[in-house]
Design a protein that fits this description.
Length: 204
Amino acid sequence: MYEYIRGTIEYTGPEYVVIENNGIGYQVLTPNPYVFSSKKGIQTIIYTYQHVREDIIALYGFPTMEEKLMFRKLIGVSGIGPKGALAILAFGEPTQVIRAIENEDEKFLVKFPGVGKKTARQMILDLKGKLHDVLADEGTNTPVENMKITSSNNDMSEALEEAMLALSALGYSDRELKRIAPKLQDKELTTDQYIKQSLQMLMT
């Protein structure tokens, strides 16, 4: 199993990034690919988890070890697969998810795509009191910092469109995205920042 890959980011898309190491480009599925946008062409580290099933072998990656540990905890819950875990982690605040689990806040948890009341209850039953090792790693790895862009309105529209595509790939519905998109159109943000603000709106 791969613990991490150190290499250069060569491609960023709505669902994955490609990181090159020694002439090999690894396709890595990640909660928010655009968090790596400012690192394109620059050497960086992605903490990875290899997921193997009968019909698929996939590599998942995260900017911090904390997120990787949380991903492993989430996919151990009945009813949550890798895609569902990515949608939860895309929210970008593992501590808020952990707090919701510890406080048995089902209303917060069911706002994630694919998480109904039964799955939210299962998350609480399986994970409450068992996430101390995730919290212990908080802050040990510095997430990739966002790079503020200063470009044209066309670039901003493109960034917002990329954010909507990434959220759609995570499982958010067209209805949900159409509700929040108009509220973001006048902002000048990076794709990563659009995604984070969108998730904050979707979770309220």
